[in-house]
Design a protein that fits this description.
This protein is mainly alpha-helical. It folds into six domains: 186 residues, Rossmann fold; 43 residues, no CATH class; 87 residues, Arc Repressor Mutant, subunit A (Orthogonal Bundle); 104 residues, no CATH class; 180 residues, Tetratricopeptide repeat domain (Serine Threonine Protein Phosphatase 5, Tetratricopeptide repeat), CATH 1.25.40.10; 81 residues, Winged helix-like DNA-binding domain superfamily/Winged helix DNA-binding domain (Arc Repressor Mutant, subunit A), CATH 1.10.10.10. It is 60% helix and 5% strand. The chain has 46 helices and eight strands. A hairpin with a 2-residue loop joins strand 7 and strand 8. Helix 22 packs antiparallel against helix 23 and helix 27 runs antiparallel to helix 28. The chain is globular and about 100 Å long.
Length: 880
């Protein structure tokens, strides 16, 4: 036998050159098969790369069996690190495929000796030469290329990737980075790629797979999809565990399991397949779902933790890199994978797991309050959580709602939940939620226990105590001043207030208007913030306050002030070098909101995109930017852009909420997306769970119009009535008034309709709120003309609206329309109102004589002798 192995080759195992058999219940994935076919048709080399459990082999096997081209298959194993064995496998796979489907030019290929000669280069040249004789393409699929190790690039696979003729299409599949250099393909002849994002199950595929495994229509496929992020093996494990537990009653029919039994799979199929040192690092580094290089070093306990983190990223080990701020990177583990790793470490070394949670808590103490609290509680270090909350609860309100902050306090175990600072934080939460009685009771309890605080924490509590007081019932704000003599003189500004106090006002103001209240208190606080200190000490705070004040004005409907303040803040930010910093995101968002309501959609999109990019997913401006981006794209009707903005909106699911009305705004945005795509029934179904009001002002305003447009006028009316005392914003009041006007017109109540239109233009004109009129242009076209005749104190504004509508009209017009000049069409649009020639001239910034000249030209071209005749003819011919 030894002599036989030395002198001739034996055929390899047949299972290595055959695609794997489909498992029972495996999901067919035509979406991926089509994508791979397109990639293989367009590129000589295609890479399929994803971690374990993404169904690469199953989907590739299905594709090979259905492919129109002859396909060769080769599965690699850990022994294929030997060049001779790998060459033998490649040649054997290609010959096997060529022999089953004889093609012209295969003779040289079939006659090739699969044994690797002593001169490797000569053997490689013989294979390349044989492939050049092929007259039709053949596809070679090599699965599990990661098992070939670092020598893959210098062996036959690397040679084929670099030099094979176009007749050979190469598809490489593996778990991460391959040693073959791919950059020249990406930027040269091209590279087909399918990665984890494409291989993950979609929501629809999860539902389809659940149905195939016996779940009924009540199953919540969306929740399972979000929990697993579409990781196929996790979806399968969850569904199998549900099937095994059918005899155990679930709290909710169709619910998904809270625990996915994947720890053993992760240990055997992922961790045991990589270097032990890297596997140990992963178990340590997955202590937190999010981490940076510094935390990686601290969790690893050695300086090369950052290098190992990069190696995980390079090898596709369930981790993604995200830009955080100013070029700094944050890394995020796949949450379900990280949870399994934590479970494995807890089983193997519970004391180490606890210690690593404490390390993470210390790291996040001044960075992320939520993560610090979670890590501290898992590490049995509640004092760490209390310290972080006491020092940073005010900053925490920047990006989170009161309910989240209160829940963090309530999660603390006894006796830490009775800490004076924690009680005071809960008091603030109750006060901001409108529960003054509970707030007062908690404050009394906190003050009675201040003896438990050290000197530093007591001074901190006393310095902010005045800010904790609930807002008086009359709404008047009596801003306090600090008189604490113990403060450092370096912390005192020129007018006697400290920078920390000014910062406290600033942060409280942000928290206030982000709770979607009236905005009056927020504005007062921010204005007081901007007035404190001198430029040298407080310019950063003042610039931030100006940006936030711009957003506060935009939310409150003062669009002119919002734009002015945002422009000023951006100019100051540019002087400070802040153009690419998160703190400028509120100013960009303010400008985006103003541009949207002014119906400048292109400018709105630019500003909102900037705000969302700067704000990022970790900052609170992101969700509201995403909402307005959807509104802009729905208004624009660009379905390609709408797909992008809806995906951006979807990305905020499961993350920090934008105050109390986020869920309602999110639901309404999804309904508007459905409406923009022509699914009106779907839009109505989406908003029906919201009822008829009781949400934030913007949410209820959009909801009222959507309900009216979809035919549910009764619910629309109730929704509008629920906003009776929340119509302070110019665009809120304008939107609602127009919705009410159209409903009144539909019932024949002309007086009410005109009263509502007059009120709408009264509120819209000072802030140039145009979007509500444009959105309802078809229903308002005739009604605005009637209103101009009915009588209005805002003739210029209404005439401008009618002119704008006429210029934006896209229906086909009579040829005579095109005989009018652009200025004549503009003058004709104003002639629909009862404005005099002098008033039209003033509105258009031209002379009265010029207006009269245009009128005479219009009469001549339309064959009219008066304004009435001209308008009558223009209407008949479709000009207006």
């Amino acid at each position: 036998m030894r002599d036989r192995l030395d002198t001739e080759w034996v055929s390899g195992p047949q299972f290595k050159i055959r695609p794997p058999v489909r498992g029972l219940g495996a999901l067919e994935r035509p979406r991926l098969e089509s994508a791979l076919s397109a990639a293989a048709d367009s590129h000589r080399l295609t890479l399929v790369a994803a971690p374990a459990g993404y169904g690469k082999s199953t989907f590739l096997g299905d594709w090979v069996r259905k492919c129109d081209l002859p396909c060769a298959w080769l599965s690699l194993d850990r022994f294929d690190t030997q060049p001779a064995r790998l060459f033998h496998g490649v040649v054997g796979a290609i010959q096997s495929a060529a022999s089953k489907l004889p093609l012209p030019g295969t003779d040289a290929l079939l006659a090739l000796d699969p044994g690797l000669a002593h001169d490797r280069a000569a053997s490689y040249d013989l294979l390349l030469g044989a492939l050049e004789h092929l007259t039709e393409p053949i596809v070679l699929v090599i699965d599990d290329v990661h098992l070939a190790g670092p020598g893959l690039a210098n062996g036959i696979v690397g040679v084929l990737a670099a030099s094979a003729p176009p007749s050979l299409r190469l598809v490489l599949s593996g778990r991460g980075h391959t040693s073959i250099q791919l950059e020249r393909f990406r930027y040269g002849e091209g590279l087909g790629e399918l990665r984890a994002a494409e291989l993950a199950f979609t929501r629809e595929e999860v539902a389809q797979f659940a149905c195939a495994l016996g779940q009924d229509q009540t199953f919540d496929a969306g929740s399972l999809w979000k929990m697993t992020a579409g990781w196929p093996v996790a979806v399968h494990a969850s569904l199998v565990s549900l099937a095994q537990a059918r005899n155990v009653p679930l709290a909710t029919p169709g619910s998904v399991p809270t625990h996915v039994p994947l720890a053993d799979y992760v240990a055997e199929e992922i961790l045991d397949q990589i270097e032990p040192s890297l596997a140990e690092f992963i178990l340590r580094a997955t202590t937190s779902d999010w981490l940076g290089r510094q935390l990686a070093v601290e969790l690893e306990g050695r300086p090369h933790g950052g290098v190992l983190l990069e190696e995980c990223l390079r090898n596709g080990l369930f981790i993604e890199e995200h830009e955080y701020r100013e070029g700094e990177s944050m890394f995020r583990w796949h949450s379900l994978f990280a949870a399994q790793c934590r479970r494995i470490l807890q089983r193997r070394d519970p004391l180490l797991a606890e210690r690593l949670h404490r390390v993470a808590a210390r790291y996040y103490q001044d960075v992320d309050v939520v993560e610090c609290v979670a890590q501290a509680l898992q590490g049995r270090a509640p004092r760490q959580a209390v310290i972080s909350l006491g020092a940073h609860w005010l900053e925490f309100l920047l990006g989170n709602d009161v309910q989240t902050l209160e829940r963090l306090c309530l999660d603390l175990p006894a006796p830490w939940g009775e800490d004076p600072e924690i009680l005071m934080i809960r008091s603030v939460c109750r006060a901001l939620s409108g529960d003054g009685t509970a707030a007062a009771e908690l404050t009394d309890r906190a003050l009675s226990r201040t003896f438990a605080l050290d000197a530093i924490r007591r001074r901190r509590l006393d310095s902010y105590r005045a800010l904790y007081e609930p807002v008086p019932a009359d709404g008047r704000l009596d801003l306090p001043t600090e008189t604490d003599d113990s403060r450092s003189t370096t912390d005192i500004s020129g007018d006697g207030r400290s920078s920390s106090f000014s910062t406290g006002l600033f942060l409280l103001a942000q928290a206030e208007f982000r709770l979607h209240r009236t905005g009056e208190l927020a504005t007062a606080l921010l204005q007081a913030t901007g007035a404190t200190g001198n430029p040298e000490q407080l310019e950063a705070v003042e610039t931030c306050a100006q940006a936030e004040l711009a957003l506060a004005h935009a939310v409150a409907g003062d669009l002119v002030s919002a734009d002015e303040l945002a422009t000023a803040a951006l100019e100051r930010g540019e002087a400070l070098g802040w153009n690419s910093r998160q703190r400028m995101a509120p100013a960009w968002l303010a400008r985006g909101i103003a541009c949207y309501w002014n119906d400048d959609l292109q400018a709105a999109r630019t500003c909102l995109t900037k705000a969302q990019r700067l704000g990022s997913e970790l900052f609170p401006t992101g969700p509201l930017s995403a909402i307005y981006r959807v509104l802009v794209d729905c208004a624009d009707g660009d379905l390609a852009r709408l797909a992008d903005s809806s995906a951006a909106l979807e990305s905020f699911h499961g993350r920090g909420r934008y105050a109390v009305s986020w869920n309602a705004l999110d639901t309404i945005a999804m309904a508007k997306i459905a409406e923009a795509r022509g699914d009106r029934d779907g839009a109505l179904r989406t908003v029906q769970p919201l009822g008829a009001g009781g949400h934030g002002a913007l949410a209820d305003t959009l909801l009222a119009e959507l309900l009216r447009r979809e035919g549910d006028t009764a619910a629309s009316q109730r929704c509008a009535e629920s906003l009776a005392d929340r119509r302070g914003s110019s665009y809120i009041d304008t939107c609602l008034s127009l919705t009410e006007a159209i409903m009144a017109h539909g019932t024949g109540d002309a007086a009410a309709a005109h009263e509502r239109i007059e009120h709408a233009v009264l509120r819209a004109e000072p802030e140039t709120v145009l979007r509500p009129f444009v959105e309802r242009r078809e229903e308002l076209a005739d009604l605005l003309v009637e209103h101009a005749v009915w009588g209005t104190a805002h003739e210029s504004f209404i005439a401008a609206l009618m002119a704008r509508e006429a210029q934006g009209e896209t229906r086909l017009r009579a040829q005579s329309y095109w005989n009018l000049t652009e200025r004549e069409r503009e003058v004709l649009s104003y002639m629909r109102s009862i404005m005099t020639a002098a008033e039209i001239a003033e509105a258009l910034y031209i002379s009265v004589n010029t207006v009269k000249t245009h009128e005479r030209s219009i009469y001549r071209k339309l064959g009219a002798v008066s304004r009435r005749d001209a308008l009558k003819t223009a209407t008949k011919r479709g000009i207006v």
